[in-house]
Amino acid sequence: MSEVTKEVILERLQKVRGPDGNSDLVELGLVSDIFVSGGRVAFSITVDADKANDLEPMRKAAEEVVSRIPGVESVMVALTAERKPGSGGAAPQQARPAAPGSDPAKPGVDGVKTIIAVASGKGGVGKSTTAINLALGLQANGLKVGVLDADIYGPSLPRLLKIERMPEPPAEGKLKAFEGYGLKVMSMGFLVEEDTPMIWRGPMVMSALTQMLREVDWGELDVMVVDMPPGTGDAQLTMAQQVPLAGAVIVSTPQDLALIDARKGLAMFKKVSVPVLGIIENMSYFLCPSCGTRSDIFGHGGARAEAEKLGAPFLGEVPLHMEIRETSDAGTPVVVSAPDGPHARIFKDIAAKVWEQVTTREGRQRAAPKIVMD
Ligand SMILES: Nc1ncnc2c1ncn2[C@@H]1O[C@H](COP(=O)(O)OP(=O)(O)OP(=O)(O)O)[C@@H](O)[C@H]1O
């Protein structure tokens, strides 16, 4: 199958006329934020906010030409408009001090002490499942936790926590973060309308992330877990640059390919000077529920060896298990649905290790959560 590239996408978009009816979208410089992840494509077309409704046929045409590119499985096109100063909405936020351990050049988020990213070099490795159970594991260990779902390709949080979409943005002031199982949560999935893919309040995709960080009332949090989009392209790099991260956790499956991708993830965070808190090996082994036999179907242990080689802490291994899949997909993550079971214990243990890394790096006297053991 041919690879979908930005160049091919731009070439196709030259066939779509812009709002003036004469020049094409590319010529007018209206296409931005092109994200390609396997067969999934997302991009923005900047338009005048007042004309957005009339430009739906143009958006549809852009979607149509890109969806015809061989290898493209899904296309998300957002009409975006940069908010004009004084056009309403939440008041501009004052720069806050950076979160401890993060880049001091990036302002922190009100009330949030520490922000960590959960990332993966490629999609489908169970990053979101791990992120939510890690967040619940941190909470089970006595911390106040929030989760920001920054995965624009396929936001998972609404599904993982069974939260319905946001009904209406507030007329003024900050939007309150949602709550699910005691976690404060926000997701890209709440910001995109189902039938009109226009980002909430019309900002660009990247500004949507900034809005979720700074224009949402998160309350007081010890830690915010950011579920990053999969992959290591420009979009991920930008996000890693925008969010004042104290560190990143990389999720990988044991297969070689995923590990190569995980290495790219490590390199990406290095590039933006974000410390890697460690690697989690997901779908590490299969434990037969009836006979108890363990099978290392993906050649278990690769992540631990790779972590050692790269000098990154190894945070733990999560088995491939039906209970983890079923609970995730039912919106009742295993740490809350079976809090005393073996899988919940694994996530709580990983959470303790992550927190230990954070506190060690921050060099502060903050008590690490205790590891819950039977
Ligand atoms: N350890 C596990 N055991 C069994 N199933 C798992 C495990 N981890 C994740 N899954 C399942 O794998 C599927 C993909 O997981 P998830 O959505 O968390 O992956 P992801 O890496 O975030 O994917 P994407 O890149 O598409 O966002 C889900 O159905 C999830 O329930």
Automatic annotation (TrEMBL):
Domain of life: Bacteria
SUPFAM superfamilies (UniProt xref): Fe-S cluster assembly (FSCA) domain-like, P-loop containing nucleoside triphosphate hydrolases
Keywords: ATP-binding, Hydrolase, Iron, Iron-sulfur, Metal-binding, Nucleotide-binding
Biased composition (Low complexity): 90-102
Every MIP18 family-like domain range: 6-76
PROSITE patterns, alphabetized: MRP
Region Disordered, residue ranges: 83-107
Transmembrane segments: none
Pfam families per record: FeS_assembly_P, ParA
GO MF entries: ATP binding
Ranges in a coiled coil: none
Family annotation (InterPro entries): FSCA_dom_sf, MIP18-like, Mrp-like_CS, Mrp/NBP35_ATP-bd, NUBPL-like, P-loop_NTPase, YlxH/NBP35
Residues that coordinate or bind ATP: 121-128
PANTHER family named in the record: IRON-SULFUR PROTEIN NUBPL
Subunit record text: Homodimer.
Function noted in UniProt: Binds and transfers iron-sulfur (Fe-S) clusters to target apoproteins. Can hydrolyze ATP.
Family: Belongs to the Mrp/NBP35 ATP-binding proteins family.
The name this protein goes by in its record: Iron-sulfur cluster carrier protein
Organism this protein belongs to: Rhodobium gokarnense
